[in-house]
Amino acid sequence: MSNHSNQDIATSSRTKEIIRKHGFTFKKSLGQNFLTDLSVLDRIIDAADLDKAKGVLEVGPGIGSLTEQLAHAAGKVTAVELDQRLIPILGDVLSPYPHVSVVHGDILKTDLRKLWEERFSGCAGVSVVANLPYYVTTPIIMKLLEEQLPLENIVVMVQKEVAERMAAKPGGKEYGSLSIAVQYYCEPELVCIVPGKAFIPPPNVDSAVIKLRRRTEPAVSVADEDKFFRVVQTSFTQRRKTLSNNLSALSGKERKGELGELLQSCGVQPERRAETLSLAEFARITEALTASGML
Questions:
Q1: CA atoms within 13 A on the CB side of 189
Q2: First to last CA, the chain
């Protein structure tokens, strides 16, 4: 893959040197863990399918270990960093790369469409590549998906359990509304598991790299996405309850018998649990509930 040297940021010695030089202290509240394993970075870069005609948005660059590798692989890199204390450090370590820009801001409050127009016009494709802070992983992923951005891939390092939930198939306890939301928009693929010792400071859980390949069309066709996701969320309200028990919150208790018949007409037994249903089954139920006026 790429030719690494001991000058790469993502080595234990260089990371410690940068932290010392700038007197940086880790903030637990921001979930800061800096990756110091170049082989993991190679896997991330490979998964993202980058080239010099493409752009990359990075979220939470930290001290730039991943950013530096992205700079070698892509034509344009924009990194959004929340921690003001890291901005001068990034300015210093990324100075050799004129095609990399760092924005100080909160990705959850950033106008991503505007950012796309300003930073990535002329790019043959844009992907999001990031080592995401655990505490905001799901909101960031959902924002990237729901805003219908012209995205190719999202390749992110997240907590291992969250990656497993995104990639889960129906039938297991990992499968839930996050699995469905991600798979509605993307095809997920687990790239690799990353142990805590690959970071400074080491987190006390394992991480995983997951690739979400953006679908050209959603996995299932529904007339109203908001209704579809409301049905999914309601179905998983209490995981141990049957589908008809959870969905009676939408239909009203007095129409529960009718709801049972409606589910059967969709080819779904009312006593099934939400975790056994495919996206296609949720789509059929949504259309039927809408047609019956229960939704």
A1: 13
A2: 52
